[in-house]
Amino acid sequence: MTFPKAFYKWRPHPWHGLDVGPNPPQMVHAFIEITPFDLVKYEVDKVTGYLRVDRPQRTSSQPPALYGFIPRTYCGPRVAAMMPRAKRGDCDPLDICVLSERPITKSEVIVNVRVIGGLPMLDDGEADDKIIGVLASDNIWSHVEDLDELPQALVHRLRHYFTTYKVMPGDTTQQVSIEANYDRRHAEKVVEAAMLDYQDEFGDAS
Asked: 173, 204, 200, 158: which is closest to 74 by C-alpha?
């Protein structure tokens, strides 16, 4: 029996075994870990590639968009250098939020995403950028080219979620901060930096 070229005998690791995307840094793949309907934060297990329960959501706030990461990216020195006050990258794949008009309720799916901007999030001194993109085939959002074309209320929701999603009730410390949003051009540079950081850390996947 002849298998197609893209056939995998075993399940590929979503971080290391999937392609970064069809046309990076403009068009990338996103592996979705959590959806706007999840009350638990899931995170891919770095060893096995399966989803692991990280923690229940700490507040009533839920993620306003699909949330996951771009395969074969890594937040290392290049990504950190692009964020003022960052001491280092967070040593994780580059996070991405994906907007879709139709509800997508399943995680562990791969979606094609067009990058439109991002949030420069600093988490306890670590660069933890949140790239923002739109589902490439979406009828409502597919025309959006840059972050400033989105409804500002939606961007505010994303900012609010990420500035509060680690806060425990009664906790007065603030380890997360987000500076001014950045546009598509800068977001694409962050993706490129994360791709190069990945190559430095893990080698050329090709």
From this structure: 200
User: Which domains are delineated in the chain?
Assistant: 27-201 (3.90.80.10)
Q: Which tokens is 120 given?
A: 């420069």
Q: What tens digit of pLDDT does each residue of 15-69 get?
A: 999 999 999 999 999 999 999 998 888 999 999 999 999 888 777 778 899 999 9
Report the distance separating Cα 188 and Cα 155, nearest Å. Answer: 18
From the number of C-beta atoms within 10 Å of its C-beta (0-12, 13-18, 19+), residue 66 rates as buried
> Which of 34, 21, 26 shows the shortest CA–CA distance to 162?
34
Tell me the pLDDT tens digit for each residue of 72-128.
999 999 999 999 999 999 999 999 999 999 999 999 999 999 999 999 999 989 999
Q: Would you say the pTM of this structure is higher than 0.90?
A: yes
Task: Answer for the pair 169, 59: CB distance below 8 angstroms, yes or no.
Answer: yes
- Chain centroid to CA 163: how far? 15
